[in-house]
């Protein structure tokens, strides 16, 4: 029974395979015919449109040939003129180093010139500041006149030429003893007697100190400014410092700062600079 059933199955499979093979053989000619028909239809359409299919392909070949010819000519030109193709002859290492050296030299020259320009600007600013200070001082400093006594109606006693130093010393002692009024009268008498004496500028300075001690700050400012009318006075830095203090006492802080700037500009090595700076730091 099993043998018969197996034989039946084999016969059935053989029959099925035979039919499939026949179908494939029939389909392949059909596909070939279909492709041929499509090509024929395309040819007919191109003929109706007036397109010459045989002329198209040679045209493409001709275009490609022209491109190839141009490339060949370009390559030949580059080989014949390598300098033109690369933009000119190349620089040697030595020439490059020389150009770099020149560039660095020019850059250094520019830096040096910039430094000189900055120095000149600083000098110009400093000179402008000094000119401004001199103009301001000229406007505020009156022409020197022998000072009058602080007590109206009291004449200034004259000092004999041989007693100038003794009177000056006596005035200093009165000031140290805080007898400011007596010291003021004595210093004023020295100026009235001989304003050209070597101690006259010191006497003028101490007149300002007397007014400062008496809290007569406006008078003290005028007295300290008169110190600058004496050429080569050794009390200029002292007087400039006291001007800072006078304006601070009057509550004119900005004016005091201006006088401090003059002190620092004209007497940068004076110990009064640091003292004035420390005092102004509190305001």
Keywords:
283 residues; 11 helices; mainly alpha; Serine Threonine Protein Phosphatase 5, Tetratricopeptide repeat; 0% strand
Overview of the structural elements:
- It is a single chain.
- α6 packs antiparallel against α7 (200-213) and α10 runs antiparallel to α11.
- The protein has helices at 2-49, 53-80, 82-86, 93-140, 164-176, 180-193, 200-213, 217-226, 236-249, 253-266, 272-280.
- It starts with a helix and ends with a helix.
- The chain is elongated, with a radius of gyration of 57 Å.
- The model is unreliable at 55-61, 82-88 and 140-155 (pLDDT under 50).
- The chain is built from eleven helices and no strands.
- It is mostly helical and 283 residues long.
- The longest helix is centred in the first third of the chain and has 48 residues, at 2-49.
- Among the domains are: 97-140; 161-280, Serine Threonine Protein Phosphatase 5, Tetratricopeptide repeat (Alpha Horseshoe), CATH 1.25.40.10.
